[in-house]
Specification:
Elements lengths: L5 E10 L11 E8 L8 E10 L9 E9 L3 E6 L15 E6 L9 E2 L11 E2 L2 E2 L6 H5 L9 H4 L4 H8 L11 H8 L45 E2 L4 E5 L6 E3 L59 E3 L9 E3 L102 E3 L9 E3 L100 E3 L8 E3 L14 E4 L4 E5 L3 E6 L7 E3 L17 E8 L10 E4 L6 E4 L8 E5 L9 E2 L12 E14 L10 E4 L6 E3 L10 E5 L7 E8 L3
Parallel strand pairs: 13-14, 15-16, 17-18, 23-25, 23-27
Antiparallel strand pairs: 1-2, 2-5, 3-4, 3-6, 6-7, 8-9, 10-11, 11-12, 19-20, 20-21, 21-22, 23-28, 24-25, 24-26, 26-28, 28-32, 29-30, 29-31, 31-32
């Protein structure tokens, strides 16, 4: 809704004539409306008219709403036609209030004049209207009021009687002819009667024009009848009879040195909308003006219904077309604060493009084009300056796109092309002196979104960040710094989170980092440098983009005892470490001889010294008969019925004894030997051939003491003490290292087949 902040009353009230004692059926009201800029309003406006018995009253005594046509600010209404006036409305002083549309009622209210109260004048200075009735006087010609000659002065009673003797001349409005007929010829005895044919002496008239002193129209040069009009210099037309017209020859040159408004002055006091002081029409140019200082000057508003060209005559496409050819401004709009004495904001230019009624077209408030020089200079579509004083803010461009109701997008700025800012920029926050771009938000979505869709050739980069501190010599250069803060009770914090989606046969790299290229440095170059732990849910490749295992290092660097060699270093480079290359594992101690050296090219392991801490025997995996019945600690013998397999020993002094099942009573095999790919040598039961381990023993044959020779017994899988040495050779399994005085149990055995 428009705001109407100014109203000037041009004509207040024209009261409608009504009978005495009746309620008026309406009265006319006329006013003048402008917008806040002072321009007259045009259109139809709903106005609420209200009458109050006090200038500050809250409740109205009467009100009605009318749809009012306003033309050039002027409007006229007749109040009381929609809502009749109450019978007791005009007994007190009244004030008129007006409310335009949904605006607040205008202030102050207008006090009504006396006209609306005149309908109640049925008394005059205490006299009742019946006492003022003169109808009897009209029909009574005999002086009903007994007026004396002394009371009326000049006329005597005889003259009054003569006058009253003609009742037709009393209280009746006549036309001129009727009045002459009623009054009759003028006679001396009746001075009130006049005959229009009676001559009036020129001697009784003052200020007689020259040539008329004798009462006759003269034909001399001093006066007389007009017999013709001749056109002078600069005119054409004239004539000797009938209506005569004089026309101005063109071009018309008027010269002189008037100190005021100019050579031609036209004034029209009519308030009708199309009235004008000077009107000019031409088939090509209506007015052509030229001046040494100003070609034209207007004091007041200017209304031009057609297109206007300044510096050009080509105006068919634009309401205002301004064209120049200098290096200065062709348009200058200056709204100085000194001219804004009422306060508020000062606007230099207001432009609006409204295409809401077109449904589909765009509305542009202003369109600017700037073309730079062909060899130099810059092109600015729009260039804005904001100069603040005191504590005010200076904003070069202020744009708001949130004023309307739309389901479309609302962009404060929408640019096609590049953008450049020479100073700091803030989005969602005031610019920060520490950052060229400060973006701040408060939602659960992305604060910044960079999308580069390249449908041509080459790579598409979403974001490029560079931190260059080479000029400082000592400072760090960070391409980008990211901080991620997780929730206080759950969630995760990601300093940087990257996604890569491959299409077709392309590769997807979540993070691709290059350090050191293209500049050379004597310092370290790390593609990745992390402070804290690392986590990879998939395979990781080093020097390969197709890792075959969870960690795949692709290198043929040779490992040696010297520092700096190999592929994978575990430990300290300057101390104890394990170095691995593609075919070797070397345990080093700062270049000292290795205690472990594994080489895939040989068939053996080079170990200057081997220390095994996980077991105490040397075993081989064997295939056994009745495997489900075999227990750790049982003594085993060769199975003659199943070549290559072992069986549980079950007779005394058995010369096919082979060994003891390893792993009994918590002692594991120390070394296990086998050959992959061979069914005979690739068994599942570890048999101790030498070393120490626990064996099942039966002391019921004889008490066992440490150092006793042990052999097989008739008890299934149990050893016993050798008591018949003549049968012992070839059946001895080893020596007892712990005693067993009676019954069955475990005995620690030093395995040594004899």
């Amino acid at each position: 809704m428009k705001k109407y902040t100014s109203i000037v009353l041009a004509c207040l009230i024209n009261f409608i004539s009504i009978p005495v004692g009746a309620v008026p059926d309406g009265y006319s009201y006329q006013g003048y409306l402008t917008d806040p800029a002072g321009s007259p309003i045009n259109g139809t406006i709903n106005i609420t008219f209200s009458l109050y018995d006090d200038i500050n009253a809250i409740n109205a005594n009467w009100s009605e709403i009318q749809s009012v046509e306003v033309s050039q600010g002027l409007f006229q209404v007749k109040l009381g036609l929609i809502t009749p006036f109450p019978t007791d409305l005009f007994g007190v002083p009244l004030w008129l209030g007006m409310q335009l549309g949904s605006d607040a009622e205008m202030n102050p209210r207008v006090a009504l004049g006396s006209a609306p109260y005149a309908y109640d004048a049925d008394t005059l200075d205490g006299w009742d209207s019946s006492e003022l009735d003169q109808s009897a006087h009209v029909s009574n010609t005999e002086n009903p009021h007994n007026v004396t000659s002394a009371q009326i002065g000049a006329l005597g009673i005889i003259e009054l009687s003569i006058h009253s003797a003609n009742p037709a001349a009393h209280h009746t409005q006549y036309t001129d002819d009727e009045a002459i007929t009623a009054m009759g010829p003028r006679v001396n005895s009746n001075p009130l009667h006049h005959d229009k044919t009676t001559n009036l002496s020129w001697n009784n008239i003052t200020d007689i024009p020259a040539g008329f002193s004798d009462g006759i129209d003269n034909t001399s040069v001093e006066g007389g009848d007009i017999t013709g009009v001749a056109a002078g210099t600069g005119l054409f037309g004239g004539g000797t009879s009938g209506d005569v017209t004089l026309n101005v020859q063109v071009p018309l040159y008027l010269t002189g040195s008037p100190s005021g408004v100019g050579t031609i002055f036209g004034k029209n006091t009519s308030i009708v909308s199309n009235s004008s002081g000077i009107r000019a029409e031409g088939s090509n140019i209506g007015v052509y003006a030229q001046g040494n200082v100003l070609a034209g000057k207007f004091i007041g508003d200017v209304d031009i219904s057609g297109n206007v060209g300044i510096g050009t005559s080509s105006t068919s496409n634009y309401k205002l077309h301004v064209k120049g050819g200098s290096n200065n401004y062709i348009g200058y709009f200056d709204n100085d604060y000194s001219d804004n004495s009422a306060g508020g904001s000062a606007h230099g230019l207001f432009a609006r493009g409204d295409s809401r009624d077109t449904l589909v077209r765009g509305g542009y408030g202003a369109t600017f084009f700037g073309y730079g020089g062909s060899t130099g200079g810059s092109a600015y579509g729009s260039r804005s300056y904001a100069i603040a004083e005191g504590s005010s803010n200076a904003i070069g461009v202020y744009s708001d796109a949130t004023g309307g109701a739309t389901t479309g997008n609302e962009y404060a700025f929408y640019g096609l092309g590049k953008g450049y800012f020479s100073d700091n920029v803030g989005i969602g926050a005031s610019p920060d002196t520490n950052y060229k771009l400060h973006v701040k938000g408060g939602s659960n979505n992305y604060l910044g979104y960079f999308e580069n869709i390249n449908n041509a050739s080459g790579s598409a980069h979403g974001l490029f960040a560079s931190g260059d501190s080479r000029g400082t010599q000592t400072s760090n250069g960070y391409g980008a710094t990211f901080f991620g803060y997780g929730g206080s009770t759950s969630g995760s914090a990601y300093g940087s989170r990257s996604y890569a989606y491959a299409n077709g046969s392309s590769n997807a790299y979540g993070v691709y980092s290059v350090a050191g290229d293209p500049f050379s440095t004597t310092g370290k170059t790390y593609a990745f440098y992390g402070i804290g732990g690392g986590y990879f849910s998939g395979k990781v490749g080093i020097a390969t983009d197709n890792p075959a295992t969870q960690l795949h290092i692709n290198s043929n660097a040779d490992a040696s005892f010297a520092n700096g060699s190999g592929v994978l270093l575990i430990g300290s480079e300057s101390g104890r470490n394990l170095i691995i290359d593609y075919d070797e594992i070397i345990a080093r101690n700062n270049g000292a001889p290795s205690k472990l050296y594994l080489n895939s090219e040989g068939t053996h392991v080079v170990v200057p010294g081997l220390e095994i801490r996980g077991g105490a025997d040397l075993s081989e995996p064997f295939n056994v008969s009745e495997e489900k019945s075999v227990l750790p600690g049982m003594v085993m013998a060769i199975d003659p019925e199943n070549p290559g397999k072992l069986r549980i020993a079950d007779n005394s002094y058995d010369r096919t004894v082979a060994g003891i099942v390893s792993g009994a009573n918590g002692i594991n095999p120390g070394v296990s030997m086998s050959q992959k790919g061979n069914d005979i040598t690739e068994g599942s039961t570890p048999i101790a051939l030498t070393g120490r381990l626990f064996a099942l023993a039966d002391a019921s044959y004889s008490e066992i003491q440490p150092g006793d020779l042990l052999t097989t017994s008739d008890t299934l899988g149990h050893v016993m003490k050798v008591t018949d040495h003549s049968r012992a050779p070839g059946s001895i399994i080893g020596k007892a290292m712990t005693p067993l005085e009676e019954g069955k149990g475990y005995v620690l055995v030093l395995v040594s087949l004899q």
